[in-house]
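[worker-b] picked up task from shared queue
[worker-b] task type: protein-ligand structure
[worker-b] ligand name resolved to adenosine-5'-diphosphate; SMILES cross-checked against name lookup, match
[worker-b] sequence length check passed
[worker-b] input payload:
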Amino acid sequence: MADMEIQQASRASLKPKAAEVFRGLWASLFYSQANGLKSVLVCSADRQEGASTTACSLALAGSEPAGAQRVALVDLNLRTPALDQMLGLKNAPGVGEIVLEGLPADQAAQPVGPGLDFYAVGKVGSNLLEILRSDVLGQFLRALEAKYDHVVVDAAPANQYPDAQILAPRVGSALLVAYASQTPREAVALAKKRIESGGAKVVGAVLNQRTYPIPKFLYRRV
Ligand SMILES: Nc1ncnc2c1ncn2[C@@H]1O[C@H](COP(=O)(O)OP(=O)(O)O)[C@@H](O)[C@H]1O
Ligand SMILES: [Mg+2]
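[worker-b] inference finished, payload out:
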């Protein structure tokens, strides 16, 4: 389990300390022999735990230095899209138009920087589960894996909606984000169980917003 202090991603850049943390997370997800993944779904047990911040920061760190890696960041939190605002980009067209209207995926790609493209949620209507289960979405994800070196997908909280459970096996692996001092252990365990029930692997966990009950300089000595 990764136990780390992270900082929030700002528009399209990371603070140096956050960049270092997320480069480490990127390497352990995508370059380690144990994992060696192509794509990862980022989600949490409940909302407001930092899943979108983590997905965004991970993709930004992974696409640095500019142009070294081609990375796609996909907002598949159809309930509460957030990445478009975090990045200062448009919320449409996106996955909704690709799946429901047959828009070619490259027409929905929004460049964030040299190695990073963002795909927004777009207009999704009300049949959200149909979109998540659709063949077109599966084809879209496979096409992204062919076009990019790595794909990072943001999803709705696993304990509140079936979305992450449906998406995880389609993406292949999942990273669980938990709000360090608040998420009950049982909630994380349930989220892990739900994600794994579909056959996907939970490849790691991020403890977000770690706080230090004792001063930091003392903490390092204990
Ligand atoms: N490590 C962090 N430090 C400070 N603020 C954070 C951190 N992680 C998330 N936040 C803030 O907490 C809120 C929820 O984060 P978000 O990533 O949108 O969570 P989720 O996707 O799990 O709902 C946002 O306002 C975000 O800016
Ligand atoms: Mg979110």
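[worker-b] attaching auto-annotations
[worker-b] The radius of gyration is 17 Å.
[worker-b] releasing lock
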